[in-house]
Structure formats: structure tokens, C-alpha cells
Amino acid sequence: MGERLVEFAAAYDKRPKYGIHGVEMRMVLKYPDGAVQFLLFTNWHLPHVHKELKARALTSILNEPLAADLGYHSPIPQHDGQTSMGPCVYLDGRDCYYDGSGLSAEHIFKVLLEEGSAGVWRELEEFYQSVFHAETVRA
């Protein structure tokens, strides 16, 4: 079993240059030969931002969770032409070849809602196997 990491990044208000953003939840399954992740934008904003959004009647849109990414971090390219994103914390500082999909993350969000973290870890394990050990994936 790989190493399981759960990280929460704080919400921020860095207007006008960078804007606002809510809390992010990231679940990472890490092995020596690569890592996979599920990223959820919770849309939990700082209290003053939430108050502002509520006053503008935008809370129903901007406070919904958003399945943002299902992706992998690989120390080697996974397809032709893939370029490194530089050193990666999930690869212990090695160069990272990354790819991910917001559309694929929607399935993982549904699993999170119906099964909790146990279901997400199972799905991340299957995704890891499909990326890094495709020959061992169950049919």
C-alpha cells in the first residue's frame, strides 16, 4: 500500500492581482515510482469573502464543491512530447511529468459522496495501477 496524504490549502483573498479562492482538499496516493491525486475545490471562502458573495447573491454558485482534478505525478514522461513541470514534492524533489483531468475527477467526487475516503483511496489505487502498471489492472 502506498503512502496516503491528505492536504488542505487555505482560502485566500489576494485581490486585485490574484483574486479569491476557497479551501482546496487534495488526496494523494504516493509510491516510489509515482503518485496520483484527487483535488477538490471546496469553495469554502474566508468569512469576509463569503459575506460579500452572499450579499451579491453568488453563494449558491460559488459555494458548491468542484471536483477539480484527477491526475498523476510521474518521474518519467508518460507520452511523447510530455515536458517536465520541474521538481515535485510528491516525487521527493525529482522532476515531475504531470497530467490530469477535471472531467475524470467528477467520478471520484461521486465516490467521495457515496463512500467517503475509503472509496476514494480504492479509486486512487486503481488509477495508480492504470497509469504506472497498466499490465496489472483488472479487466
Topology:
Layout lengths: L2 E7 L2 E3 L4 E3 L2 E8 L2 E8 L5 H9 L3 H4 L3 E9 L22 E5 H14 L1 H16 L7
Helix pairs in contact: 3-4
Mean pLDDT: 92
Sequence stretches where pLDDT stays below 50 over 5 or more residues: none
Strand order of the largest sheet: 1-4-5-6-7
Count of domain modules: 1
Number of strands: 7
- Classify the secondary structure makeup into a structural class: alpha+beta
Order of helices and strands: EEEEEHHEEHH
Q: Characterize the main sheet.
A: 5 strands, antiparallel
Rg for CA atoms = 17 Å
**Total of helices:** 4
Basic shape: globular
Describe the structure.
By secondary structure, the chain is α+β, with helices and mostly antiparallel strands. The chain has one domain. Helices cover 31% and strands 31% of the residues. The chain is built from 4 helices and 7 strands, in the order βββββααββαα. It has helices spanning 47-55, 59-62, 102-115, 117-132, and strands spanning 3-9, 12-14, 19-21, 24-31, 34-41, 66-74, 97-101. The strands form 2 sheets. It has a 5-stranded antiparallel β-sheet. Strand 2 and strand 3 (19-21) form a beta hairpin. Helix 3 (102-115) runs antiparallel to helix 4 (117-132). The relative contact order is 0.17. The mean pLDDT is 92.
Would you summarize the structure shown here?
It contains four helices and seven strands. It has helices at residues 47-55, 59-62, 102-115, 117-132, and strands spanning 3-9, 12-14, 19-21, 24-31, 34-41, 66-74, 97-101.
